Amino acid sequence: MGIGRLVWWWCLVAAAVLGTLAMLDRWGVAALIVFVAFGALLAAVVAANIWSGEYVQRAGRKIVITTLCGALLGPAAAGLFSVFGTTALLIILSLAATSPGVVRFARTHWFATDDEQPPAQPTEQSTEQSTEQSTGDVAQASGRHSDDEPAGQRRTGLEQLDDQALCLAWRRSYFQLEAAATPAERLRVVEQRQRYLDELQRRSPHGVAAWLAAGARASGDPLPYVADNRRRID
User: Fold this and answer.
1) Which long-range contacts (CB under 8 A, 24 or more apart) does 100-104 make?
2) Which end of the chain is more exposed for a tag (fewer CB within 10 A), N or C?
């Protein structure tokens, strides 16, 4: 966890504790229970509307987490308003604007350079065609394996790709994973993403380690780290 994110979490915890204590001091336990229920209900409704179209298991997990956050932060927000008045609004907005999710969104969509922009999210049809094409290319490049060939020596076909093509395939697979409609399809994409990571690790273990240490995202581009490390080795 980076220092910026760690500081943000400590600020959030401090604000939540201060607000909750203020709520108890001003209005007592009964009001605290009411605001916990109200915060949880409001967060659940908002989360259900945001993630209702996602895969059921993932959406359910996000809704539960958001509901719990609403139950904890609802009373804290009310307590901050009771102590600081309208100044509490600035505190809440500041925490929201500097949250890891908002910062990540801003970096990806507002402040990213052309080379860092994620590829356009494919439609369901193009995703299916792309997955089939990738699978076919890998199978063609690797050929058929003999039954007595050791598993550790089998070739995946990914070694035929250069670094840029491999990293692009990794980034596209994120959107294929997001568009996967069934558990079986998601599992296929996850396994393919693991093969991409294994190949990147084989080519540039130090570059992959540097990318992970820098806060690698599931849709991020490891190419700058991999290419830079390979240039140093060369």
Assistant:
1) 100/5, 100/8, 103/4, 104/217
2) C
Structure tokens at 106: 């801003």
Q: What is the structure's pLDDT at 137? A: 47
Q: What's at 42, amino acid-wise?
A: L
Cα torsion at 16, 19, 22, 26 (round to 10°)?
-130
CA dihedral 145, 149, 153, 156 (to 10 degrees): 10
Greater model confidence, 42 or 101: 42
Q: Is residue 154 helix, strand or coil?
A: coil
Amino acid at 136: G
> Is residue 15 within 8 Å of residue 72, measured between CB atoms?
no
- The count of other CB atoms within 10 Å of the CB of residue 198 is 13
| Tokens 């939540």 found at | 16
Q: Is the pTM of this model over 0.90?
A: no
- Picking from 95, 88, 90, the residue whose alpha carbon sits closest to that of residue 69 is 95
**CA-to-CA distance for 203 and 190, rounded, in angstroms?**
20
Residue 67, pLDDT score: 86
pLDDT digits (tens, 9 = 90+) for 50-105: 766 555 556 677 778 888 888 888 888 888 888 888 888 888 888 888 877 777 66
Distance CA 96, CA 70 (A): 13
Three-state secondary-structure class, residue 212: helix
Condensed to tens digits (0 to 9), the pLDDT of residues 153-206 reads 445 578 888 888 888 899 899 888 888 888 888 899 999 999 999 999 898 889
Query: Could you give the angle at the alpha carbon of 106 between the alpha carbons of 105 and 107, nearest 5°?
Result: 95
